[in-house]
Amino acid sequence: MTAKVKVRQIDAYRWEIPQEGRMRTRGVVYASQGLLPKIQEDQSLQQVANVATLPGIVGASLAMPDIHWGYGFPIGGVAAFDMDQGIVSPGGVGYDINCGVRLLRTNLERAQVAPQIEALVNTLFSNIPSGVGSRRKDLKLSQSTLKEVMRYGSAWAVKQGFGDAADLEHIEAQGTIPGADPELVSQFAMERGRDQLGTLGSGNHFVEVGYVFEIFDDKLAAALGLYEDQITVIIHTGSRGLGHQVCDDYIRVMLKAVSKYGIELPDRQLCCAPIASPEGQQYLAAMAAAANYAFANRQLITHWVRESFEQLFQMSPRQLGLDLIYDVAHNIAKIETHEVNGKKTRLCVHRKGATRAFPPEHPETPAAYQKIGQPVLIPGDMGRYSFVLVGTQKALTETFGSTCHGAGRELSRHQALKVAKGRSIVKELAAKGIFVRGAGKGTVDEEISEAYKDVAEVVEVAHGAGISKKVAKLRPLGVMKG
Amino acid sequence: MPRIKEKWYPREQHKSFRPFFHTADLGLHIWGRDPAEIFAHAAQALVATLTDRRRLRRRESRNIIVEAPDQEALLVAWLNHLLYLYDLDGFLGREFHILELSPESLKALARGDIFDPERHIGKTAVKAATFHRLAIAPQADGWQATVILDL
């Protein structure tokens, strides 16, 4: 494999990969002294350098502190491209287009829910299909309905009665990425997505019932409606088979585009096309369609989470207060306006395993959070904790308004299974007061805490570097694993 | 496209596939005596990632044609087409017959079962086969391929 990539320390939380060879810019990695050695073990820094070779890249090729080896782009990678000279790459978004996280608050407290957590997780399981090959038998979409879903995303779901209009104010891009064109989504993709809307899927996707364990900033927490011991719900899923197919379809288009436009690549998985080209425009419109499908998916699952709570606790929606705090995408390319060399410039920002973190008073920060900044949701592993943060001005100037997205894996799934062998992970977690139920054999074992970096370390870097600000720490009580 | 006469192979001497470490994903090394066997073994490796293959009965069949610009891309297209068939109605192949194969196209017959959570074990979900570190190459005693799956 390639030689070890050079890094130079910039400050306590930033490391530079100097511009060398075919790189058009430098790489900047957000990490602590403690996190760096692990990052250097695999090919992820080489991947940061590879992204820096792509045409039209603006600013540095960035990596967030949860960086790990991906395919093509690193996971935790952020790269912005000029709208005229730059490219768009399906590999820079990933197969799970608009995989993302949403956080719900409740009026319930830990003491009310903890004794019934097993029943609650089981109710969630019966209401939300999950696991390998999960599909909804009750919701098979016609072609025309599916196209509506892809055009309007969460707004479609709300119109159908899944949630209310207030939800839309608390979703990135209001749950609808503009410019989606379902006509550019293949028949194959639509067939895959037909009966998967409203399903969780498998792998690292989950619904987690937790509680607020610690508040770091009282004012920010109050503005988000969070307080200690309060029950919260996190939903993590994406665009299912439809998104995977859109990515695969357009990677094939891009493989041809690369030779058509004379783009040289260090890795085929980085294949791309100029943003301004027909191929680039078509991908963006198809990606937006898949992203909207994902927003609708999380909206539907939210509806069934609310129903599950209503069923089990026999309380009204008003009593439960299961309001959406925020929903963020962490696999997406967005057309955004950023200041480059003092000039407002439109860019295509790729976030692959990275979360948008816009500051207070930014036009795209929702009205409710104009004073505090856009909420950022960072799930950890199922045995430890998750974090709520807010975006900052520093993120906007340094990272195109981006921050980390999760813990980042430390062990492969294969290694995780070895570590888990002979142990009952479900019992170990139960002893810590966490009830976990997985849909598939092995999914719980693959997702053991030891397989992930400590998300607290990752969040500490994001907070310390000033690219987001800690608000609260949540601990899990019950986890539904896909 | 050259037609492939289905050969009878003696019991395998090599393992037909082996998973390898890749942090968030799963890599597969695949061995075969010829490219056709690489494609068949890669399909088996994919299905073995999703479920316990031994429980799949051979009661459904699918005729499959895929095309791609080159042999490596064809391997990715083939695996992703199998994932498409699985999402479509749950079809998972138990055995794969490669009927015709050229570097740009493949014709195959898959026999298998419809995934039923009551009877089958759901193992690890696969999002897609990727182009990252993708390779197919002849070796001294056959062929070897490497493909990384996004999980």
- Largest protein interface? A-B, 50 and 39 residues
Give the second-level CATH assignment, the architecture of chain B.
3-Layer(bab) Sandwich
> Superfamily at the CATH H level of chain B?
Archease domain
What is the name of the CATH class of chain B? Alpha Beta
Number of domains of chain A: 1
How many strand segments of chain B? 8
Strand content of chain A: 15-25%
CATH topology of chain A: tRNA-splicing ligase RtcB
- Summed over residues and divided by their number, the pLDDT of chain B gives a mean of 89
Average pLDDT of chain A, rounded to a whole number, is: 94
What is the beta-strand fraction of chain B? 35-45%
Structural notes for this entry:
- The complex is a heterodimer of chains A (482) and B (151).
- In chain A, the strands form 4 sheets. In chain A, strands 7, 8, 9, 11, 15, 16, 18 and 19 form an 8-stranded mixed beta sheet that branches.
- The model of chain A has no long low-confidence stretch (mean pLDDT 94).
- Chain A has one domain: tRNA-splicing ligase RtcB (Alpha-Beta Complex).
- Chain A is α+β, with helices and mostly antiparallel strands and 482 residues long.
- Chain A is 33% helix and 25% strand.
- In chain A, α4 crosses α11 and α10 packs antiparallel against α11.
- The longest helix of chain A has 36 residues.
- In chain A, 62% of the residues are buried.
- In chain A, a hairpin with a 7-residue loop joins β15 and β16.
- Chain B is built from 2 helices and 8 strands, in the order ββαβαβββββ.
- Chain B has one domain: Archease domain (Archease, Possible Chaperone, Chain: A, domain 1).
- Chain B is α+β, with helices and mostly antiparallel strands and 151 residues long.
- In chain B, a hairpin with a 2-residue loop joins β1 and β2.
- In chain B, the strands form 2 sheets. In chain B, strands 1, 2, 6, 7 and 8 form a 5-stranded antiparallel beta sheet that branches.
- About 3% of the residues of chain B have low confidence.
- Chains A and B meet through α8, α10 and α14 of A and β1 and α2 of B.
